[in-house]
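Hi V.,

You were right to ask for the full record rather than a summary. Here it is.
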Amino acid sequence: MRKLLIALLAALPLAVLAATPKTVTLAVQNMTCAVCPITVKKSLEKVAGVSAVQVDFGKKTATVTYDPDKAQPEALTKATTSAGFPSTVQK
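Predicted structure:
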């Protein structure tokens, strides 16, 4: 029990230092069919640090939650562009 407590206390500072997740909305081009959002979502989920992706076909957007220590918006737009769907960060 004592070793468990020591291990938990040792890990605590790491949890405190973890970055707060950020969310960004991307304006996505070229989404013309029902399969397009699936491709966009999969391309974004492959980016290290991404924890959630929601694609809105009607609005032509992708809302991405990510760890700013592991990913940046530039990596997200690059991922969609590489998949054939150029995107920009929505203001």
